[in-house]
Write a structure and sequence with these properties.
This protein is α/β, with parallel strands linked by helices. It has 2 domains: about 140 residues, NAD(P)-binding Rossmann-like Domain (Rossmann fold, 3-Layer(aba) Sandwich); about 180 residues, Dihydrodipicolinate Reductase, domain 2. It is built from 10 helices and 17 strands. A 9-stranded mixed β-sheet has the order 16-13-12-11-7-10-9-8-17. It has a 6-stranded parallel β-sheet with strand order 3-2-1-4-5-6, with helices on both faces. Strand 1, helix 1 and strand 2 form a beta-alpha-beta unit.
Length: about 350
């Protein structure tokens, strides 16, 4: 990034941040931002009078407003965090960038790929940090999972599988795919270091709503690697699990298991070099080893994410989940949606 007309040196000057949205996720941001080194929570905006009353009770020194204009006009505000409903993100991100503010927005940045491209270009042109809140990229368990997938230990990648189920909460502005699957698409892309080439999916409306509440999606990556995702608002068993299977090792991330967040199985099967005795026969090399639960450092992903946001502004560097990374996720979700409409037909991402 080029020099900023309002240079920030975190450590000597506090970064002034505004929070837009104090609904389901906003209070978590407010708590983290209120204690974040090098940052000051300066103003909170929400349309609900009741939510603003709660803000004043918890943060009596923080300015409040019910309209976006005071946030965008506020003198000496450096950045905003956007935690509103998904359908509002695009407009608020655009207005914030046009006002010269750095932006951290909850996923998704927008609901269409062309909108993501336009917002990323706007952030580049205005020399602002644009970061999207894929908190699982800052989860110590996911980071450990990627570490356990090092090529020399993991071998060839065969496939990934993710399950994200619970009873609701049911969204009114997006379906279960856009609500839940962004996490797993982002995790897959992060673990593999690439974006999918195609998507195939089916969905259903078991709860008789106007949006799909259950979906099964398959993403195709390079070298015939596939990633399968199951999301549901209608399953009473809450599951938050990601599995990666390779030729030498199987790695499991279970976000609900505090005792063993990550486990890897030193077991695998691969095709050995041998002359087949007949058509279709191969020598299968089976590797059998220990089951290991590596140490995973404790830490709050949301705090780690916000710390990177502040650091990116200070050091003029792009975040891990920047606009281009988010675009890859959005393109995959759009392909999943299109495939659902076509009853599972594979769609190029």
């Amino acid at each position: 990034m080029t020099d900023d007309p309002r240079p920030i040196n975190v450590g000597s000057v506090r970064l002034r941040i505004g929070l837009i949205g104090f609904g389901r996720w906003g209070p978590n941001y407010a708590r983290v931002l209120g204690d974040l080194p090098g940052a000051e929570l300066a103003i909170i905006c929400d349309r609900s009078a009741d939510r603003l009353d709660l803000v004043r009770q918890r943060y009596p020194t923080v300015t409040t407003c019910s309209d976006l204009d005071p946030v965008l006009r506020r003198d000496r505000l450096d950045a905003v965090v956007i935690a509103t409903s998904a359908s509002t993100h695009e407009g608020i991100v655009r207005r914030s960038l046009e006002a010269g503010l750095h932006v951290l927005v909850e996923k998704p940045m927008a609901l269409r790929a062309d909108s993501c491209i336009a917002l990323t270009a706007l952030a580049d042109a205005s020399d602002r940090v644009l970061m999207i809140g894929y908190t699982f990229l800052y989860n110590a368990g996911v980071r450990k999972m990627k570490e356990c997938m090092a090529a020399d230990q993991f071998g060839d990648v065969y496939y990934l599988h993710a399950t994200r189920t619970n009873l609701g909460p049911i969204r009114s502005d997006v379906n279960a795919v856009w609500d839940l699957a962004p996490h797993d698409v982002a995790i897959f892309n992060y673990l593999l270091g690439e974006q999918p080439l195609w998507a195939s999916a089916i969905g259903t409306r078991a709860l008789r709503t106007t949006r799909d509440d259950i979906a099964f999606a398959t993403l195709g990556y390079a070298h015939d690697v596939v990633g399968n995702i199951h999301v549901s608002w209608a399953d009473p068993n809450k599951v938050r699990e990601v599995v990666a299977v390779g030729s030498r090792r199987r790695v499991v991330f279970n976000d609900l298991n505090d005792a063993e967040r990550v486990r890897y199985f030193e077991r695998g099967v691969s095709v050995g070099e041998a002359i087949a005795d007949s058509f279709g026969e191969f020598k299968l090399l089976v590797r059998d080893g220990e089951i290991v639960s590596p140490k995973v450092e404790h830490g709050e992903p949301l705090k780690a994410q916000c710390l990177e946001f502040v650091d990116c502004i200070s050091r003029r560097r792009p975040p891990l989940a920047d606009g281009r990374f988010a675009l890859g996720v959005i393109r995959a979700l759009a392909a999943i949606d299109k495939s659902i409409q076509s009853k599972g037909t594979a769609v190029d991402v």
